[in-house]
């Protein structure tokens, strides 16, 4: 188990393991290429490393999360893969699962979002630092806020600034976007080659205990804390 950024992981597992409650987190955005899969697999690995029983459901026809799981080595913390691309499989999860992360399909509109939101405790919307992503995400978040369970506060809605280059024009653009919508990101993740390099091996930064990855893992602390 890693010492950062989950020093409290073992304690929480010990305190809650007596009565498991499945917590489902949907990672979604209408804009393709925003990093949904990277966030889904990284969160799944982080919680699996923390001692929870984790499942990863892939609802995207491209099945990127499931392809990543096929590459995952046996020595890594176990994550149970689920194919949610067929409507009849929606909501299925192994008995005893603590956390279920759902990699939503791209171009998620209106009624198609509601069945997935209905399964969720939280929705995470990644956004890239570009004008097109900001506009698409603004409309997506507005539409999500019309869904009854989100409007009534039964499902949390968090935004993650993804692949941000500090002090860049893109970062400034995102700052203006968050100011305009009146909601700040729960976490800001900088652009790092480590995500793609490790994904090829079926791994994430939470599978690597080396200090080299500690600053990158630390960027996920606010998001993990918000979920847990």
Automatic annotation (TrEMBL):
Cross-referenced CDD domains: ParAB_family
Sequence ranges assigned to domain CobQ/CobB/MinD/ParA nucleotide binding in this UniProt record: 26-204
Record's protein name: Chromosome partitioning protein
InterPro entries: CobQ/CobB/MinD/ParA_Nub-bd_dom, DNA_Partitioning_ATPase, P-loop_NTPase
């Amino acid at each position: 188990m890693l010492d950062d950024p989950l020093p409290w992981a073992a304690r929480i597992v010990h305190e809650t393991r007596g009565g498991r409650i499945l917590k489902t987190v949907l990672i979604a955005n209408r804009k393709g290429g925003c990093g949904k899969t990277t966030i889904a697999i990284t969160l799944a690995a982080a919680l699996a490393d923390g001692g929870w029983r984790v499942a990863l459901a892939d609802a995207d026809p491209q099945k990127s999360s499931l392809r990543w799981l096929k590459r995952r080595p046996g020595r890594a913390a176990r994550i149970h893969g689920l194919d949610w691309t067929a409507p009849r499989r929606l909501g299925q999860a192994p008995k005893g699962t603590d956390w279920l992360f759902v990699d939503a399909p791209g171009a998620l509109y209106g009624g198609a979002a509601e069945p997935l939101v209905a399964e969720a405790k939280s929705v995470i919307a990644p956004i890239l630092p570009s004008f097109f992503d900001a506009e698409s995400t603004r409309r997506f978040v507005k539409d999500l806020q019309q869904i009854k369970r989100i409007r009534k506060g039964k499902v949390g809605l968090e935004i993650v600034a993804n692949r941000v280059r500090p002090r860049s024009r893109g970062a400034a653009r995102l700052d203006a976007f968050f100011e305009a919508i009146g909601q700040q990101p729960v976490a800001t993740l900088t652009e790092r080659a480590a995500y793609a390099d490790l994904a090829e091996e079926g791994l994430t930064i939470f599978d690597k205990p080396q200090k080299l990855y500690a600053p990158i893992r630390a960027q996920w602390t606010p998001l993990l804390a918000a979920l847990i």
